[in-house]
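Bug #77: duplicate submission created two jobs. Keeping one. Sequence:
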Amino acid sequence: MTVKEYNNSVEQYSDNIYRFVLKNIKDTEKAKDIVQDTFEKVWKNHADISYAKVKSYLFSTAYHTLIDSIRREKYKAEWDKADENKYYSNESYSDLNEVLHQALDRLPPDQKNVILLRDYEGYSYQEISEITGLTESQVKVYIFRGRQFLKNYIGKIEVLV
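Kept job's structure:
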């Protein structure tokens, strides 16, 4: 396709492509951008496109550019429409003990019990094993998993203080 044929196709099909895109996304600025991107892609490949098939090439390119734009926008957040109260909290935890108890309440009962016996009461693994009826290795596993959960739940101590 020659430069003259390209310019002719811009004049002939740009309005039709714009209306096609606008009907799909209902945003005039985005529609203009998609039309511009479409003609840019066609210009980059104008040497390989025959003028007889330019209309179908333009509409397919516009369609694919539209789909790509929609996919990109799907993952963007609209911050001006966001409810700030949803992402903002006035709560401050001045009591670290309260945070720890909230985290402990989220643990499964077995993990919570062995952690309380080990860390709060100071029992050994063997004593906890005798009290709970679990094997010593099960006690160690429950304590490890419980501590991992607490570490992930509470996060860095600097954030809380």
